[in-house]
Amino acid sequence: MNRAASPESSRRGANGSDAQPLRGAASVPPGRRVWLRFKRNRLGYWSLIVFIAAFVISLAGPLWSNDKPLVVRYQGHFYFPLVKTYAETTFGGDFPTPADYLDPFVRDRFSAPGNFAIYPPNHYYYDTLNYFSKGSNPAPPSRENWLGTDDRGRDVFARLVYGFRVSVLFALVLTAIGTVLGVVAGAVQGYFGGRIDITGQRLIEIWSALPELYLLIIFASIFEPSLILLIILLSLFGWIGLSDYVRAEFLRNRTQDYVRAARAMGLSNWQIIWRHVLPNSLTPVITFLPFRMSGAILALTSLDFLGLGVPSPTPSLGELLAQGKANLDAWWISLSTFGVLVATLLLLTFMGDALRNALDTRISDAVKAGGGQ
């Protein structure tokens, strides 16, 4: 009679090694395994944390970089200038125009006994003009303006905060639209193949041969530049590169056994594409997301630098770089803007490299076997 196996021996395989971690690893969902491999890359993981934190801080910019107080108590009443515009007469002024909270007269009213005002740490919005400043512009960094002012007297720190927010939001929208268009175009060509694939490829070749920069210049001269116009124009060309990768993945995966089994079960082509082929073809799509965002930020910065981007006074990294070029003695404008742009692109690059390694199991296993992080 065979001896009953002990609990300890039942957890060991034929070679005496502990098999429980293998069974536990096999039970982890694929998405969870990718996330664990991503976290193993400390540089990419902390780049993601820093990027998200910076973006969240920029979204909350009005709470800590604004020319209006957060809360005002005046003559026994509380006011919230961030959510409502108050006239100067509300605080004892003579004119019914919106109150200028940088005005020394208004500040003196708030400093009277029983009154107070809680200002953000930085007292400037991205388009604030301090008419009460006694210095010339552009002004170097000081206690009042942490990173100095531009040639119009606007606070550089505030414009960097809001310019970063505009750049990231622009990149997110442009990346989302280009990804959807690229996936749809590549999926249709790669799955159906034949004449559909050949016709699609010829149309893409013709479309990609159009001079994108010239079209931007023409439309910028006809229409008033705006973020919406830039997103539309750049989205017309931003999907082409991604569609080639998705097409290649679909051409490879459409011949797999699970696709033949799905056809034998009577599923429609669109059901097979959505449920089976697309989930197994998303590796290049996910891998390129950070790099596509980098390209979108660089495109917006370049267009703003050339004067073809968003109109003034919308904050922009490219517009600040153009001001730095026009005012070479105001080194603080170019240095701070270049630092923010380089840091943003480096964070996205580190995230993209870590994401690529996490999705490629061969790279992840090699790094783990070599003891790398």
TrEMBL record:
InterPro entries: MetI-like, MetI-like_sf, OppC_N. The chain crosses the membrane at residues 43-64, 168-192, 213-240, 289-310, 330-352. SUPFAM superfamilies: MetI-like. GO terms for biological process: microcin transport; transmembrane transport. Residues 1-27 are annotated as: Disordered. Belongs to the binding-protein-dependent transport system permease family. This is Peptide ABC transporter permease.
